[in-house]
Write the structure tokens for this entry.
Amino acid sequence: MSKIAVIGTGYVGLTTGACFAHLGHDVVCADIDVGKIRSLQTGDVPIHEAGLEELVREGLESGRLSFVVDSADAVCGADFVYLCVPTPQSDGGSVDLKHLKAAAAEISAHIRHGAIVVNKSTVPVGSTLLVEEAMDRPDIAVVSNPEFLREGTAISDFLNPDRVVIGADEPTVADRVADLHSSIAAPVMITDPASAETAKYAANAFLATKLSFVNTIAAVCEAVGADVDDVLTAMGYDQRIGGEFLVPGPGWGGSCLPKDTRAIISMADDAGYDFSLMRGVLKANDEQFKRVVDKVESVVSLSGATVALFGLAFKAGTDDTRNSPALEIAGLLLDQGAKVRAHDPAVAAVGIDEITVLDDPYAAADGADVLVVVTEWDEFRLLDLDKIAEAMVSHHVVDARNIMDREALLSRGFTYQGVGRN
Ligand code: UGA
């Protein structure tokens, strides 16, 4: 078993650390956020991620997982150092690498000879080299090992991945990183660093393309009178297409797909290639947010209307509202003079004064003209529709996730609009 340091305890770093400890390795996680480290030291996990708190507590109890503020303390005895720091989007869509460079420079003097630095942050092609330069330690190998973790299922994605991709210049170095995953049954692909870095962006760009395609097919279904569920089920049976990631919605969001699609466009631009297909994918997504608002506007005049927004997280199973379709749609509604009352089972606040967040769905529906379902929480399927009807002043539902019981709503006098349904 190996000694592993993880720098950065966001959902990628924390999942990586907790899972490696679960697999039997000795893991020290570091983060500059003192409050977060203090919480983690007591087993409190600040993010909503299924199974993560249990794994963190298991790691703490076994003594195989610990948390420190100082990255030098974390890396000094480590065989492997995982860089899991944020790589936010900068102006123009490119990736801001300041955290990565700072982390690399900070740990450089403290890493022991022969250790391997593993870059897990999502970073543009060439960043493996950039970390090597920032560390200025020719005796330390740097490899790329992109993460393919979905929020909400990050633990199972780590422990049962579709593949592990390791980009390294030296096969022996790649083999050592591959060995860390020896108890995981998944194909391990060893590539050069540039291919591993590109594979990460290409995968997210393809997923975003698939979703924009699905959402535009839903629009076609509405236009021609077809049913999107039947159309997509028929498509999904084709093994070349596959049935996953084929659910239409309010548009896609989150901390990854929007950032990574913009980054791959920016990377391609810098390399002299106009990735116009990807620009179309982003445009289709913006149009999808707008289509939800158009549906609201088809039943009420937006100025002065009250909209109950059900869902703030970018998808069910997480409390993450970064680039959430709900906030995009709320922004468009507010711009046109609507009032927004919102409820999400996992989100208590969004830091936007104009959005009133209520912890009770019936309170959020109180006085509303239109109810818009944006996040696919199971809780919304189980709502007492009579209570919702009582709370609202007009009875309109825009179901941007196709999860509500249409017949039950219609029978109570609601109008109903789903996505790609007639
Ligand atoms: C995404 C990728 O799916 C992961 O493979 C990747 O590792 C991760 O980004 C990352 O780069 O770290 P995540 O951001 O958790 O994972 O979100 P997804 O599950 O991909 O969902 C993205 C958006 O698409 C959400 O708004 C979701 O509601 C929407 N979606 C997803 C649909 O509208 N329909 C679907 O069928 C699937």
In short: The radius of gyration is 23 Å. The pocket of uridine-5'-diphosphate-glucuronic acid is lined by residues 122, 147-151, 204, 207, 211, 245-247, 249, 252-257, 314-315, 325 (CB under 6 Å).
